[in-house]
Every structure is written in structure tokens, then in C-alpha cells.
Amino acid sequence: MAKKKEPTVEKKLRALYDLQLIDSRIDEIVSLRGELPLEVEDLENEIKDLKTKSDKIKEIVEENKKGILEQKQIIENAKELHKKYEEKLKNVRNNREYNSIVKEQEYQDLESQLAEKKINEYKSNIEQKDLSLEEITQKIEDRSKHLDSKKGELETILKETHKEEDLLQRKSVEFEKDIEETLINSYKRIRSSVKNGLAIVSIERGASGGSYFSIPPQVQLEIASRNKIITDEHSGRILVDAELAKEEREKIDKLIGS
After folding, report:
1. d(Cα 164, Cα 25) in Å, to the nearest integer?
2. Which ranges of 178-256 does DSSP label H, i.e. alpha helix?
3. Residue 70: enclosing H or E segment and its boundaries?
4. Which of 33, 37, 83, 177 is 20 to 30 Å apart from 66, CA to CA?
5. C-alpha angle 198/200/205, rounded to 5°?
């Protein structure tokens, strides 16, 4: 069986530069979305928290309303007992019995007064909670409008870029498969360590692309020969000559229909 031919350095450089062009375009699309995905997520979380807070307040209001009903029942019971004791007073036989009944009436009066006090406290608490609910409801309404606006912006961008991004993601995976693992790992490591995600750059005006550091003429000749992979000593980026970069840009532009 014939041994599989090892790709030339030039083919490797072209494949890597193609992958860089594709990944850079994906980066541009992602940057178009900017902070919108995070803003949408933050607003959704805030609305969720506000609704949870609203539900808890509503539970407290219901508990207070239940408390009012219970206290009203205590007052009704106290009134009924007071009437019974009033009837008993008509048939008292001595002072001791009289005083005992009067004390029971006084106790029921105190129970009623205490219940009235609790009812007022419950009502006051309900009023405060209702005000809090109004504020929270208004916040939810405002945040929901803001969320709808942000979602609309995001959906517009996603619709405009969805097809292209899907194609680019597929091509990125395809191109990766054609490049040896060690090179891919180096590419990804460099890409993650630089701000603009450019792991491979071309020579522009005698300097590394995006850099002010000039490349010695002898090194430029080596890069143009495409016989070995050369990195910029300042940034660590892999370097390619301008002609190769131009040819690959035209190729990728045709591939993605730019």
C-alpha cells in the first residue's frame, strides 16, 4: 500500500490561513451581537427574580387576609360569649358569682380589643405590601418592554447572520479536520492569547500584520518561500506572505459568497 503523501508546508499554511479567515468572520458576526445576549439573559433573570418576589409578597398578603378573618371570628365568638354572660348575670345568686361573670365579660372585651388591634396591624401590613406590589409590577412591566426590545434587536441580527454563521461553523469544522492536531492546537493557543483572535497574519509593508515591528528582509524571503512555518518573535503569530494571503482571501470570499 502506498504511503499517504505528507502535505507540503505551503498547503498547511494555506489551510491554516483559510481557517483563520473563516474564524475571523465568525468573530465579526459574534461581535455584531455585542452584549445583547448577556443583556437579554440579565433582563430575563431580573424579571424572574421580581416575579418570585411578587409571589412571596402575595403569599404574605393572603396570610394577612386569612389572619383578619380569624381575628373577626374571635371578635364574633367574644360577642356571643359576652351575650351569654349577660344572660347569666340575670340569674346570679351571690357577689362571688357576679364578679366571676363580670371578669369573664371583661376578658372577652379584652380579647375583642386585641383582635381589633391585630386586624388593624394586618390591614396596615396589607397596604404596605400592596404598595410594594405596585412598584414591583411596574418594574416587571418596564423590564419586560426593555426585554422585548432587546430580543427584537438580537433576533434581527440573528436572522441576518444565521445562514452565514451556520455555513462558516461547518466550514471551520471541515477545515480543522484537514490540519494536523499539533498545528490546530498551536493555532488555538495563539488565537486565545491575542486580543483580536488573529493567530496567523500576513506581512504588510514589511511588518507583521497588526504589528509595528518590522520583519528582517531575510526572514521575509523565508516566509515567501513557504518551506517552513515561521512565527513572529514579538507576538508569536504564524506569518504568511502577502501573495498567499491575497489568494486565500479571494478563495474564501468565493466559498462563503462574500
Report:
1. 9
2. 181-193, 217-225, 242-256
3. helix 36-89
4. 83
5. 100
How far is it, in rounded angstroms, from Cα 197 to Cα 20? 9
Gap between the Cα atoms of 211 and 203, Å rounded: 10
C-alpha cell at 234: 514579538
Predicted TM-score of the model (pTM): 0.62
215, three cell numbers = 520583519
C-alpha cell of residue 106? 371583661
Residue 25: how many other CB atoms lie within 10 Å = 21
Amino acid, res. 105? Q
**234-252 per-residue burial string, b: 16 or more CB within 10 A, e: under 16:** ebebbbbbeebbeebeeeb
Question: Exposure of 94 by Cβ count < 10 A (0-12 exposed, 13-18 middle, 19+ buried)?
Answer: exposed
Give the confidence band of 2 by pLDDT, cuts at 50, 70, 90.
very low
Residues 6+ apart with CB under 8 A from 1: none
Domain ranges of the chain: 9-33+180-256, 36-160
